[in-house]
Structure formats: structure tokens, C-alpha cells
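Bench log. Compound arrived from synthesis this morning; before running ITC I wanted a structural hypothesis for how zinc ion sits in the protein. Inputs:
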Amino acid sequence: MPLDDNAKEAIKRNAGYRCEYCRMRGWPLTIDHITPRSTWTRALRQGQRPPPFEPDEACNTASACWDCNVIGKSERTSGEDPETGAKVPLFHPRRDTWEEHFEWVEDYNAIRGRSAIGRATVVALGMNLPHYVAQRRLLRAAALLGWEPWP
Ligand SMILES: [Zn+2]
């Protein structure tokens, strides 16, 4: 059953109205299916067993900004660690802890991966592209002026 507006709002509220990947605030949020919905249709088409949960279950949904979700992650669940070239899973907001895989650098303007998963996710989602950094600078400046804290 597709998520209704109340369910989508609850996912965003539980995430503090932030992207669960890049932690961005102030950008429109989407609902990310951590394992893409296409996984189920592909499994059925190929006569394989689909994942043991439904696409819209809480274990498979996350709050994500448009850029991380639609442009960066899209249908992917894995990426390449830029340090080793190894193929690793992308950050999983329901299984992984953000602080274990990422850290803030450059006065909270950029994110650095602390693990293979973190490094691969930063690259795959483009989490330090110039428009991300520009938005973080705005949020940081606003925080220093007494608006909401950043990050
Ligand atoms: Zn994001």
C-alpha cells in the first residue's frame, strides 16, 4: 500500500525535517526507498524472491533531500570506496549510525566519510557538490546569528 501524506509527514518529522543522508535542512524533502521499489518488480519479473519486507515499510523508508535521493542515490544501493576501489553498500539510514560513517569538516560545510560506507556514499550522492556547500554556509551563518543551530 503506498504511503499516504500522513505517513510521509511522520517519516520527515521523525528525521527532524532533515535529509537522513546529508543532514540538510531547508530543502524540500522526499521519501527515499532505501532498497529501491524497482527491486521488487525486477525480482518478480525474473522469478526471484523479493526482499522479505514491503517497499513502504518503516525499515525501508527515509527522509531525503531531492538531490541525495533522486539525483544522487536513485536506484543504487552500493558504491565505490574512493580509497580502495572496493564496492560497498551505501549508507543505510535504518541500519547504520550517521556519526559512525560521516563527520563534519571545513567548519560544518562539508562531510567526510569515516568508513568505506561513508566515503562511498559521499561520492555516490555528491554530498559535497557546490550547492550543498552553499546551503550549509547559509545555515551556518544563520546559526551564528542566533537562528536554528547548524548542524
Ligand atoms: Zn541530502
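What the model suggests: Residues 5-144 form one domain. The chain has a mean pLDDT of 96.
ITC booked for Thursday regardless.
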